[in-house]
Amino acid sequence: MDLISGFGQSINVAQEHAGLVVPITVFVAVLCLCLVVGHLLEESRWVNESITAILIGGISGICILVLSKGKSSHILRFNEELFFIYLLPPIIFNAGFQVKKKQFFQNFVTIVLFGVVGVFISTFIITAGSMWAFPKLGFLGLTVRDYLAVGTIFSSTDTVCTLQVLHQDETPVLYSLVFGEGVVNDATSVVLFNAIQKMDGTKPDMHRGLLVIGDFLYLFSTSTGLGVLVGLVTAYVLKALHFGRHSSIRELSIMVLMAYLSYALAELLELSGILTVFFCGILMSHYAWYNVTESSKITTRHVFAMMSFIAETFIFLYVGMDALDIEKWKMNKMSFQTSMGIYSLLVFLILIGRAAFVFPLSAASNLMNKQRTRPLTLKRQIIIWWAGLIRGAVSIALAFKQFTYSGVTWDPVYATMITNTIIVVLFTTLVFGFLTKPLVSYLIPHTVNERTNHQEPKSPKEDASLPLLSLQESIASNVELAKSSLAMFVERPAYTIHYYWRKFDNAYMRPIFGGPLSNRSEC
Amino acid sequence: MDLISGFGQSINVAQEHAGLVVPITVFVAVLCLCLVVGHLLEESRWVNESITAILIGGISGICILVLSKGKSSHILRFNEELFFIYLLPPIIFNAGFQVKKKQFFQNFVTIVLFGVVGVFISTFIITAGSMWAFPKLGFLGLTVRDYLAVGTIFSSTDTVCTLQVLHQDETPVLYSLVFGEGVVNDATSVVLFNAIQKMDGTKPDMHRGLLVIGDFLYLFSTSTGLGVLVGLVTAYVLKALHFGRHSSIRELSIMVLMAYLSYALAELLELSGILTVFFCGILMSHYAWYNVTESSKITTRHVFAMMSFIAETFIFLYVGMDALDIEKWKMNKMSFQTSMGIYSLLVFLILIGRAAFVFPLSAASNLMNKQRTRPLTLKRQIIIWWAGLIRGAVSIALAFKQFTYSGVTWDPVYATMITNTIIVVLFTTLVFGFLTKPLVSYLIPHTVNERTNHQEPKSPKEDASLPLLSLQESIASNVELAKSSLAMFVERPAYTIHYYWRKFDNAYMRPIFGGPLSNRSEC
């Protein structure tokens, strides 16, 4: 049956597709409720949108459980592709579109350290820890590959919750680090997970490890390249054809469709759609956005944010609703003590797995960035550590991919791993998420002062003077050279590349792809 | 499998769901192409967006046919609900949201005459004509119910094409008539079609006819009521809770979700979702729109238009692609002559079926609106007649519902009816659509002059002075009373209701649901 047949079959939707209309109606209604409740709780110190959505999802789940007399707690049986084809792209694209590019690229080295090296370290620790402790707790039956999968599953962070607390204007460096890591981390986890799934059952060796890393580097570069390409094509088309001349609707549509096309193309070419759509978002806000009419500029900013917001709320709502799925609970054969032991172990491994890379890598980053006005203090390191403790939709998605076949599993061990994942996601989101606001306001209490004092390099003026500084400081930096050659090697190139890039951008890219020529245009 | 399982299953989309990623990529790419080509052809006198999309769809179909070595011409196999659950609601909601309400309600009686009475007349003529002529052409095998279905299938108009040519600011009365009729007509056709499907095979009698009309009136009023209710609730929530205070994203999301909720609720309650979402759109633009922040006002206007635009282009693209579906053509057993005879007959019946109500009802409308500054001249009647000749997605949807089971049919007679419908849709869209621009510019060449001369009652000032006029003219109208009591009965109430409604709106509705109190706010 094709589209047109679809037209016909669903006219009297209410009669024939009550099974679809009922859940859509309930879900949209509950989403509206989430928005209203989230708005009313905006001033609250303790909760945020994600927690609200999970709790409302849980309450809806209970209502449905009671109404269906214990048969089911979720009402929506989705197609498999829902999350990765429809919900994730708008979230990631919006992330790229709204990111403050200057901050992101100035901290690019640190972000990649956290997002790539960090995932490898965290995966190693969680894999080793669970391999050692699971059998001791009486939980047997997982292969080496399963343990490696567990490592990646619990290494993918969900920073949505934290980003609702941090503010881009108040703590720009911290925000860009947490945010940037979140995106790179997502991509790394998914790519690493896929590489592990491709392994055969044998024990991993050095050669295999290098292959995984090579595979990762290939995916990272090609995915980024594709995103950049699609972004540039969009900018060029909008600029060359003067789309806004006739209607701003058409230029809006082109931007939305090209953004989605970048993701679809990446998936088609077996690249990482997450990275592609993220870089496409960055390129679109850097060039294409300047080629549209004034009203389209306002509209794009808001419409991408709205789509991302609805997708996020939807995911949390569903996670809350799914937590009560009794089918999965029935299959869990373990005792209460064993279960609690495993949950505690996993949360503990997440805590130390993240600590094991945040603090050393922060120290390395401080070493490399000695001339930075504000180093990553211990307080800031704690926030970065805390910000990535929450596990979310990606973890659940990966767990289902590893331990079920089309969402169904008859293996009690695998079913237990699914419930473990859901419990860890709920626990980290609710408890860690709950404590984020108080923690952040305890550790950085004067965020507003910070903002007015301009202590962080956030104003465009500082950015504009950057090339000048880098010339004046060249003598001083020669003296420093002996002291920290590693830091120079990593840090100077970052600034120099940034400087030459801006020159190149102004001379060649901006005239072709659009946007103002001033240095101030970048943040 | 539920949502979460879906998360997991589709991570490596490219490997497991190449069957879905390929068509989505191709479709989005072709949609982008349509937008670019549509933009380049904007100045053209002959083509418009719909025709461009159909032609590009046809060309894509040929490419796919060649690439797949004659196996298939369409790449996307959709779920049944695609059209009625995802594509139609944004189109109709946007229609309601952007309509100029003053024009729409001042012409409400005429619109309902065309949209409701017209469909009944047209259905009767097409049913009778095909019942009489089909057997003479050698096309046998349809029951009475099938013939009635044929009547409604070919009575649903597609005014998208025409509305791209007419301009709301230049010819407001004509635009609101064509536009309003289009919406009411869609709803009427679907409701009438459903009523006919419920009939048993026996011959229709007077009693049954009255039942159908009663059913129709019930659906019309309840669907409208539901749309109004959801629109008012949205406006009240936005006003009472000051959503814009915290973020404009949340108020945007609420508007989009509530709009969709109105449609879903209507389908759930077995009402007409089309009517509900249309009136919800009107109410939202009348009240809710005034309760949001300035940037949300701009964003909503554009985002609803964009969603509608993409959905429309998508439908036309698909119709073009589906026209080459060789499966359906193979089953058509009729000779070329017979086929051509049937196509010509159907197009002829559409022409006279529409003429049979447009000209008499226009005359009736002129009679009722003697004091109207600008009556429906013959030229304008011809445009109205022409505007509704094009058949589109709704016709195809209804045909598939009647003549296939989940898009598949093994009955050669039914397969022939499907190809007949596709041919008529293509012919009317391409040929009639092609001639619309030249016809309109031939019949009303000085649309811009009209606009500057303010001959049509379009400025808010005229509207504001309306209650005054109705008092002064009361003596004159008493004289007229004897001459045309029918006209008075229909016309005066319309104006009086409009007047009292505005008083009521300013006194009670606006303060509760939002919006400026001035009389000028309505258009």
Automatic annotation (TrEMBL), chains A, B:
Q: Which UniProt keywords apply?
A: Antiport, Ion transport, Membrane, Potassium, Potassium transport, Sodium, Sodium transport, Transmembrane, Transmembrane helix, Transport
Supply the InterPro entries for this chain.
Answer: Cation/H_exchanger_CPA1 (IPR018422), Cation/H_exchanger_TM (IPR006153), Na+/solute_symporter_sf (IPR038770), NaH_exchanger (IPR004709)
Instruction: Provide the reaction this enzyme catalyses.
Output: K(+)(in) + H(+)(out) = K(+)(out) + H(+)(in); Na(+)(in) + H(+)(out) = Na(+)(out) + H(+)(in)
Q: Where in the cell is it found?
A: Membrane
Please report the stretch or stretches of sequence annotated as the Cation/H+ exchanger transmembrane domain. Answer: 31-440
The UniProt GO MF terms for this protein read:
potassium:proton antiporter activity; sodium:proton antiporter activity
User: Does this UniProt record's set of keywords contain Transport?
Assistant: yes
| Ranges that cross the membrane | 20-41, 53-70, 82-99, 111-135, 173-196, 216-237, 272-290, 302-321, 341-361, 382-400, 412-435
Q: Give the bilayer topology.
A: Multi-pass membrane protein
Q: Looking at the UniProt record for this protein, which Gene Ontology cellular component terms does it annotate, in alphabetical order? A: plasma membrane
- The name this protein carries in UniProt is Sodium/hydrogen exchanger
Q: Which organism is it from?
A: Erythroxylum novogranatense
